[in-house]
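User: Hey, my collaborator sent me this sequence without any context and asked if I could get a structure. I don't really work with proteins. Can you help?
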Amino acid sequence: AVLRFCAIPPRPRGQAAGMAQNLVTVATCNLNQWAMDFDGNLARVKESIRVAKAKRAVYRLGPELEICGYGCEDHFLETDTFIHCNQSLAEILASDLTDGILCDIGMPVMHNNARYNCRIFCLNRKIILIRPKLFMADDGNYRETRFFAPWKRRGYEQHTLDRSLAEITGQTLVPFGFAAIAARNTTFGGETCEELWTPNAPHIQMCLSGVEIIGNGSGSHHQLRKLDTRVQYIGAATRKCGGLYLYSNQRGCDGSRLYFDGGSLIACNGDLLAMAPQFSLDEVEVVTATVDLDEIRSYRGAVSSFGQQAAGTELVPFIHVDVWLGHQDLSDMSVQPSAQMEPSYPSAMEECAFGPACWLWDYLRRSGAAGYFLALSGGADSSSVAAIVGTMCQLVADKVRSGDEAVLAEIKRVTKDAAVDHGDPRALASCILHCAYMGTTNSSKETEDRAHRLAQQIGAYHASMRIDEVVSAVVSVFARFISGGRTPSYESQGGTPAEDLALQNIQARVRMVLAYLSAQLLPWVRGRKGFLLVLGSANVDEGLRGYMTKYDCSSADLNPIGSISKLDLKQLLKWTAEKYGYSALKEIESAPPTAELRPLEDGHLAQTDEQDMGMSYEELGVFGKLRKISRCGPYTMFRKLVHIWKHLSPTVVADKVLFFFKQYSINRHKMTTLTPSYHAENYSPDDNRFDLRQFLYNTSWSRQTRTIRAAVARMEEKGVEGAGAEDHQQQQKATKTAGVQLAK
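Assistant: No problem. I've predicted the 3D structure and written it out in structure-token form, which is a compact way to encode the shape of the chain:
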């Protein structure tokens, strides 16, 4: 390519002589990248370029930081990461991959001793432009300014290439900064992930400067009910400014709690033209669209205000390449503009099932494990986890039956020498999912039966064991060596609340010990090799409330439901029962949630989760969203809920809010040891990465309590009423019942 550097935007050259349409085909992709897997990542990048070229695309867009993987985190502080990225880029440029196609590749670059998150535009074995990210994602799960500097200067400057890249390209200096690329027939610009979401997004200035094709390489994680927001943002951007906008995303688990959910798409003038699936086991997926560039020019030219603002905007600098990037064969009638399509959104239950299932598949095949172990209690949470693993087996079997050789090779490696029909999901589950019901005298026959039937329907290897001997042995050791022969008792048998809680917790903790023992030895028991990963099953609401025993069977290697609410999980059980015929899930969904840690009364349950917690799961979901998403402390939460819960008196609302914050703060320390969980909800209490707060609180919340009580008094003086007295009595009773429940 002949490069000319100029701050003047290009004048469109128009159509090739005799052409009825000015057509260009572009490509974007989902790539299942893995942080620090340079060889695997490079292979997937190469394959995506080959597929794009085979589909006759002249522009290929890839995800953010695709060469090294988005989730390298503190590895970005290491020189090695930059060295290996340069090696990968050099291998691409040394081949014919970039011949005739503008490749927009994501990788980190060190410029003047500062680290930048960059897009590398390559064409005909040359680097045309290095475009650093302008605005960093620095909230929620993201800490980009820890690793990268944002580019603050206008325009571009010269960057000195690494020696290996200079030798291959024949270039010493290349443009580095905020600029666009002008080919003979059209113009290209780039955004990176977060920049689209900013109030004054870079694509606005680029569009007003005459850029017609904009690519956004992204690393965006799955979150329930988020996809439509992403599509709306991109649609709105092209509807307002006109132009062709491509979005590329990673898809898969790249080594952390996040699942990048693909959904790469192409939109033009407000219309969606192509969209890749959100969930899939495919490692490389490329979608293309063909657009008539004159449609973009006509769309923009018809809007008077666009021309008025374009005439006065500060122009983006352009780098000119003397190349036609589009279709020029006049006789090829097979090339047609892409038709508009409607976006396809999965239901919330499909998201709950397929997202964690794909995350578990990536983790399983990349960890080298032989399968998963799950303590299956017959309750909603552990059954949801079993259903998700069952869904994973269904997805894998579907791919095998469709002839996907890559997935077949992976599942053969996981199942090792086992003689199994890899196209049968129940046969796969028998190899992969190992379950055990760990009952005590406090467990009911109903939950044991449900666990057995569910495991049978999924196809999982299942065992049922009684752990009373182990619990009694631990209590006996305590009585003999610690308490001088005194044995603790349940409250219902005359014991104190402390004794009751200790006896409940030891059952839960014994299950964790047996879970890890089983995970290590079950392959040996079955005459196989390898190890199993232990799955936890605590939901987001129980984590928020602290309704779990520290170091019980919620302590595991992975938790696929750790940021999914109880209400969503109950809907997931019904959906999975219908989808895959796991009929036991319907009965499990309708049963009252219970820990089964206290003695039964006449063979029936003596406790339920909501009674123990002193609040309902629905209330917990409200508290969680207000605390995290709406950033409410106790007083602000009370002020909001007193208007939302109009059926309750201000006093009852105040009691509920203060009780929640007391229990939350008592139990916050449990979040420091929370099992790595699939991130699905924005109110996750994950202390390690997402919800950064202290874990030692003044649990009286004295200032907040006085402020709320004063507000209640003012409301009562003004005659604010609600359905108060009976609810107030019930809340006080629940508060006393909960007491010190599960605080340890």
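In plain terms: DSSP finds 23 helices and 21 strands in the chain. You can pass these tokens on to your collaborator as they are.
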